[in-house]
Specification:
heterodimer, A: mainly alpha, 4 helices, flat, B: alpha/beta, Rossmann fold, 3 domains, 16 helices, 6 strands, elongated
Chain lengths: ~120, ~475
């Protein structure tokens, strides 16, 4: 057993404990967004897919890299966007119009909308 | 370590910190969006650091760049499209698909590592690589089957065939056996056996699980994906992956346990496949043990409109009928008349943990009205009317007594309300297949109709007769 592996195991166990501690405080109301957020976080495998592509040097390697990059990027982008979309629906008070708004959450007086709608983030 | 390595490693730690803080901010709806943005920032940082590492190392080929960027752009586009267009009722399927691709990517990273760098015989690294392949492949195929069941592409009812348990055991034995062989003897052919056995086991694991057990299965597969990603972190020696994977593993495990407890079932019982019946439910019109009082729309509307406090109990049936907007409309009518309205949400209402909250949030219900079971139960005695829509077993007082299928299951204390109106299509039994004693309670009136129709009728009646 190498020192590096031992370090990895320690990090894994500690992160697991931190995860239990942090996540047990999330209220049931937010369990679906929580799961979706956790989903986005495991999109970190994109880093692995990128490093895979960097070391690939034959046809099989390239195919694996392509599929892995596709899967991981789908996971990351889709995960964060859908979590954001869901969380935007959680309001303290009913919104003025009962439609699912695609606008930036501009309920604050003073025009949080000022930046316009140029951004691609939703 | 060179200065460059130092900086990149520290930046990975910073990214992982963003993930932890992001999850921490999800402990209230008010800060949850910030949490998601912080977590996304961590992800952008991790990807940027990885770009720097790749450029610094300088070994990547032109083809490598092309493959990576086209794959990521196409995948990102697909993810963006799915995330923008998915209906909130279909969230469980989407989460399942993201579990599948995450687990799949983790398995591919390990497969590539094994093929590319060659197996290091007897080394612990090989063990983590093989664990990654096994867990990742099981997650991939299992999540696809789960998504298919949720989407209705595959029969949601438990699918079993004679000898299915033998097949299951054989696949487990083949996968683990082949993996053990690989630790001692490197062989690409045997690696394929491991992959195929794991993929097969994912399918046979999820097929016999009923639709109503899906909240548990999705949580479990989520935990698997996290573990697979953490294993991938061991394989490529990257702390960010290890930490992120462990966080997701912890989250998935907690949710799995919460869901299984809320359904009063052990994980083992669910995995073996039991009385899960999926969306349709048994059509049997079981004769109730006592008299049932039915109520007309007008009477129910008057009862609701003149109440001071109404607690709405939405269940799986509401989600299945997609009647959340009608429910919110009725609630807002009542509120305009000064009725205090809140929602009692059982942990397994809906098809994934917390699903009902998202559906109601989408229907524009403010989240302070959404109450968890422990929070709302003491309020029932003060409620003039409890309106039950599409919930069954989670309201059955029989759970407080020993000796039946739901004994010990945590329930909503609906029977403590001053009066109860239940909207239901028929007297059919729920998931557990036992009669609901709530329906024969003298305080209870049954409103026999489809949830969507019933809620629309009630809203119209409130407007017409009272407003």
């Amino acid at each position: 057993m190498t020192q590096a592996l031992l370090t990895d195991i320690v990090i894994f166990v500690l992160a697991l404990l931190v995860g239990f501690e942090v996540i047990s405080k999330v209220p049931a109301t937010l369990h679906t967004p929580l799961m979706s957020a956790a989903n986005s976080i495991h999109g970190i495998i994109l880093v692995g897919a990128m490093l895979l592509a960097a070391s690939a040097n034959n046809a099989l390697g390239y195919v694996l890299a392509f599929v892995a990059a596709f899967f991981a990027a789908m996971n990351v982008v889709g995960g964060y966007v859908v979590t954001g979309r869901m969380l935007k629906m959680f309001r303290r008070r009913p919104a003025p119009a009962a439609v699912e708004s695609r606008e930036p959450e501009g309920a604050l007086p003073g025009g949080a909308d000022g930046a316009g709608r140029g951004g691609a983030r939703s | 370590m060179s200065a460059f390595t130092w900086v990149t490693q520290l930046l990975y730690v910073a990214a992982a910190t963003c993930f932890v803080l992001g999850l921490h901010l999800m402990n209230t709806p008010a800060t949850a969006r910030q949490g998601n943005q912080l977590s996304a920032g961590g992800m952008v940082l991790a990807v940027a650091v990885t770009f720097a590492l790749i450029i610094h190392a300088g070994v990547i080929s032109g083809t490598g760049w092309t493959v990576m960027l086209t794959g990521a752009l196409l995948g990102g586009g697909a993810g963006l499209y799915a995330a923008r267009t998915v209906a909130m009722t279909a969230m469980p399927q989407l989460v399942s698909v993201f579990n599948a691709v995450g687990g799949g990517a983790a398995a591919l990273v390990a497969i590539n590592d094994y093929v590319h760098t060659g197996a290091r015989v007897g080394e612990v690294t090989t063990v983590t690589t093989l664990l990654d392949v096994l867990i990742g492949a099981v997650t991939f195929s299992g999540s696809i089957i789960a998504a298919g069941k949720l989407q209705g592409l595959i029969n949601a009812a438990p699918i079993t065939f004679p000898g299915s348990r033998v097949v299951n055991l054989a696949l487990v034995a083949a996968g683990i056996g082949a993996a053990c062989y690989l630790i001692a003897t490197p062989s690409t052919a045997v690696l394929i056996v491991v992959i195929v056995a794991a993929l097969g086991f994912g399918v046979t694991m999820v097929l016999p699980i009923g639709g109503a057990d899906m909240p548990v299965v999705i949580s479990l597969l989520n935990a698997f994906t996290g573990t697979a990603v953490a294993m991938a972190g061991f394989v490529i020696g990257n702390w960010a992956l290890i930490i992120a994977g462990a966080l997701v593993g912890a989250s998935g495990s907690i949710l799995t346990k919460l869901m299984a407890d809320a359904m009063n079932r052990s994980l083992r019982n669910i995995m073996i496949g039991g009385f899960g019946t999926g969306d349709t439910g048994p059509a049997a019109l079981a004769g109730p043990g006592g008299d049932v009082r039915s109520i007309a729309a007008d009477d129910a509307a008057i009862q609701l409109a003149y109440a001071q406090k109404v607690i709405i109990v939405p269940g799986y049936g509401l989600a299945a009928a997609q009647a959340q907007h009608e429910l919110a409309e009725l609630a807002s009518q009542l509120e305009q008349r000064g009725v205090d309205v809140s929602y009692a949400i059982h942990p397994v209402a809906g098809r994934m943990p917390g699903h009902m909250n998202v559906l109601l949030a989408e229907a524009n219900v403010p989240y302070p009205q959404l109450k968890e079971m422990e929070e709302i139960n003491p309020d029932f005695p003060r409620a003039d009317v409890a309106l039950v829509v599409g919930a069954n077993d989670v309201t059955n007082p029989a759970a407080r007594r020993p000796g039946n299928a739901i004994s010990g299951m945590p329930i909503l204390d609906v029977d403590h309300a001053k009066s109860i109106i239940v909207i239901k299509r028929s007297m059919g039994t729920g998931y557990a297949g036992i009669d609901n004693e709530l329906y024969t309670d003298p305080k209870t009136s049954m409103y026999f109709a489809d949830a969507k129709t019933a809620l629309a009728e009630l809203t119209a009646a409130v407007k017409a007769y009272v407003g």
